[in-house]
């Protein structure tokens, strides 16, 4: 039986929307049906540059796209400061929402979006693409293996990239009125999610921002870090920055094994996804090497991870559309927990690096 094809519209022509446009085209159960910008000319140029189907509709306002009865779902790549307004409007139009991260400037904003989604029976998912890479499932299987990995005790994760002079002056991610969370919202979202993922989405008890965050003249975070603490003794650290070389890793350490991946956000090659595991390793007799050696693992993928994300989102939407299912709460719950931790890091920085307790 053929899958239900979900018709997507995009509001806004952000750079990331180029990647998601391609993903919608590649996903077998999705159709790229419309794009809207604040001018018809910009929307038309975006559609042409990104190989939209010839019958895709072009709109000169976001409202026009939202009023289109032929659109099932809307991808929202707008600046974070606009999320609460436009995501709520999308939901009120009974259209499902694929929302760029961070999902809001704070969890209160995201709760307004969730209320609108619940009131209108629509699915929401954030745009954390690596969650949908087949590698992520394989790595989860290792973490869940008590014999090979044991009990999780420590997690470390980092995402940094060096923005050039133009980026640091003009990008929306350094503007307090557009993406006021800066590097914490844009880059920090990923290690926060990675830590939650490794901890099977168990929220930490306490967050403490690390000293030495770097802010620009407008007060937007350009680099920061934090430590996370659980009641059972688990600990984690995260670091994010717009000022240092491209680096993205997550390391999870258990009582019997270790998982490490160097390219967890964007794989070095979109068709291959490597990761390293070690289990019950120790030194050899002369302490000149390891026994056994860590295992190098490779997962080969048929679809880029962003297309896997679109496929899964469209599957959930199709289940609602055809079978009358209720929206799946897995993804919005994960989004909210990620935002809660992000908020706590920001609060700890603002309070002079005091511990901040997480409250659901």
Automatic annotation (TrEMBL):
Superkingdom of the organism of origin: Eukaryota
Gene3D superfamilies to which the protein is assigned, alphabetical: Dihydrodipicolinate Reductase, domain 2 (3.30.360.10), NAD(P)-binding Rossmann-like Domain (3.40.50.720)
Domain Gfo/Idh/MocA-like oxidoreductase N-terminal: 6-125
Record SUPFAM superfamilies: Glyceraldehyde-3-phosphate dehydrogenase-like, C-terminal domain (SSF55347), NAD(P)-binding Rossmann-fold domains (SSF51735)
Limits of the GFO/IDH/MocA-like oxidoreductase domain: 138-259
InterPro entries: Gfo/Idh/MocA-like_OxRdtase_N, GFO_IDH_MocA-like_dom, NAD(P)-bd_dom_sf
Similarity comment text for this entry: Belongs to the Gfo/Idh/MocA family.
Name of the protein described by the UniProt record: Gfo/Idh/MocA-like oxidoreductase N-terminal domain-containing protein
Organism: Hevea brasiliensis (Para rubber tree)
